């Protein structure tokens, strides 16, 4: 079980099967799982003493062996467009970021899975922070619990504030799959947060063994960060491509797509960077590559951050790229940039990472020409 910290258990990360297992060990009835989970995830109660419909002895056992504990919120920032970003303190002491994007008919929570990221995609500021550690299941699901409580104060008239969750914050979810899977299960479980499997999305830079493992255990929605239609270019933008090239990535996705049924498809994310991957030739190549692959394409205009030399293409170039794909019959959306005034847009999340990979100092040297 991944929820044990020292001798103390964080029950926030317990799935229904974790509860049933524990209750069986204690000789208790499995229906208590339902009661306890409703207290924790529906009523946001963290103190077992308040869970009045379970026996005193069970409450005492749980209290003596652990608790329900969320990561601490250190800061909340609100963009002029209503996007909200929270800095959350992980057990390691580093800060990760989580973002809520409100729209008229839905609200999307972008959740982090790791402190920093080990992958170092060339256009992503999270990668420049280096990597520190994985978030625990409790720290991942805790982000949703924190957001729901806070948003019910901000939007008292809305019955549902978070309708969609995307694992597109800091980190590579499939390199922390053992903690991400139970968190995703809790997001979708009716005794957890009851979000439809269509509306919970795991996004990956292309960790093929992770996709294979995901296919064995869930049917959550999947997005892949493709960003280039050939290995030569993708090797430069998304270095993990050198280990798992495009053909193996699309292969794993085709297997995964079987879990999704006929009406659901995989999302192909493509960051558009001026003069790097936005030409008509590359649009045509992408169209050929994805022929027959069950997907929709999401174009993400590059979001700049301090120190990058990449630029966002003009709106005309973005539309041209989109039109080329639409003409070939693809469903293509362009992601609206939200929250960039508070550095909350895709790829701008940096938190405050106690870097273990010494990548931060490496990039500082590059940006300042060695003066750091
Ligand atoms: N590691 C996962 C999830 C995190 S990133 C993944 O790679 O999918 C979420 C999305 O934002 C990814 O598609 C990522 O490539 C994209 N992204 C990263 N940096 C960006 C930037 N500067 N501008 C726009 N999108 C960016």
Task: Summarize the helices and strands and which ones pair or pack.
Elements: E1 4-5, E2 8-10, H1 16-25, H2 31-42, H3 56-65, E3 66-67, E4 72-78, E5 84-89, E6 95-102, E7 107-110, E8 114-116, H4 125-128, E9 131-134, H5 137-154, E10 164-167, H6 177-188, E11 200-204, H7 208-217, E12 221-225, H8 231-237, H9 246-257, E13 266-272, H10 280-289, E14 295-301, H11 315-327, E15 332-334, H12 359-368
Parallel strand pairs: 2-3, 7-10, 10-11, 11-12, 12-13, 13-14, 14-15
Antiparallel strand pairs: 1-2, 4-5, 5-6, 6-7, 8-9
Helix pairs in contact: 1-2, 5-6, 7-9, 10-11
This protein binds S-adenosyl-L-homocysteine (SAH).
What does this structure look like?
The protein is α/β, with parallel strands linked by helices and 372 residues long. The chain is 34% helix and 19% strand. It is built from 12 helices and 15 strands. The protein has helices at 16-25, 31-42, 56-65, 125-128, 137-154, 177-188, 208-217, 231-237, 246-257, 280-289, 315-327, 359-368; strands at residues 4-5, 8-10, 66-67, 72-78, 84-89, 95-102, 107-110, 114-116, 131-134, 164-167, 200-204, 221-225, 266-272, 295-301, 332-334. The strands form 3 sheets. A 10-stranded mixed beta sheet has the order 4-5-6-7-10-11-12-13-14-15. Strands 1-2-3 form a 3-stranded mixed beta sheet. Helix 7 packs parallel to helix 9 (246-257) and helix 10 runs parallel beside helix 11 (315-327). The longest helix has 18 residues, at 137-154. The model is unreliable at 366-372 (pLDDT under 50).
């Amino acid at each position: 079980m991944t929820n044990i910290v020292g001798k103390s258990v964080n029950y926030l990360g317990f799935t229904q099967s974790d509860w049933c297992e524990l209750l069986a060990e204690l000789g208790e009835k499995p229906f208590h799982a339902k009661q306890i989970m409703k207290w924790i995830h529906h009523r946001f109660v963290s103190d077992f003493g308040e869970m009045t419909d379970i026996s005193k002895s069970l409450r005492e056992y749980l209290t003596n062996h652990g608790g329900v504990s969320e990561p601490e919120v250190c800061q909340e920032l609100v963009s002029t467009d209503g996007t909200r970003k929270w800095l959350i303190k992980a057990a390691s002491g580093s800060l990760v970021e989580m973002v809520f994007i409100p729209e008229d008919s839905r609200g999307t929570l972008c959740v982090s899975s790791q402190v920093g990221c080990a992958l170092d995609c060339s256009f992503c500021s999270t990668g420049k922070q280096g990597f520190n550690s994985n978030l625990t299941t409790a720290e991942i699901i805790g982000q949703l619990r924190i957001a729901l409580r806070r948003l019910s104060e901000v939007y008292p008239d809305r019955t549902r504030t978070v309708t969609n969750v995307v694992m597109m914050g800091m980190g590579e979810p499939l390199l922390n799959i053992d903690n991400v899977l139970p968190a995703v299960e809790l997001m979708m479980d009716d005794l957890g947060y009851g979000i439809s499997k269509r509306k919970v999305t795991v996004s990956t830079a292309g960790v093929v063994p992770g996709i294979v493992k995901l296919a064995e255990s869930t049917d959550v929605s999947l997005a892949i960060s493709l960003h280039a239609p050939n290995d030569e270019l993708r090797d430069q933008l998304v270095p993990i491509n050198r280990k798992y090239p495009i053909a193996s990535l699309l292969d794993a996705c085709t297997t995964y797509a079987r879990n999704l049924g006929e009406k659901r498809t995989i999302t192909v994310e493509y960051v558009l960077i001026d003069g790097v991957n936005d030409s008509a030739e590359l649009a045509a190549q992408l169209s050929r590559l994805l022929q027959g692959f069950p997907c929709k394409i999401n174009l993400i205009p590059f979001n700049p951050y301090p120190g990058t030399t990449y630029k966002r293409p003009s709106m005309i170039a973005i539309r041209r790229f989109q039109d080329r794909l639409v003409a070939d019959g693809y469903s293509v959306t362009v992601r609206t940039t939200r929250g960039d005034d508070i550095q909350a847009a895709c790829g701008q999340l940096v938190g405050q990472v106690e870097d273990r990979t010494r990548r931060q100092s490496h990039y500082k040297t590059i940006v300042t020409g060695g003066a750091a």
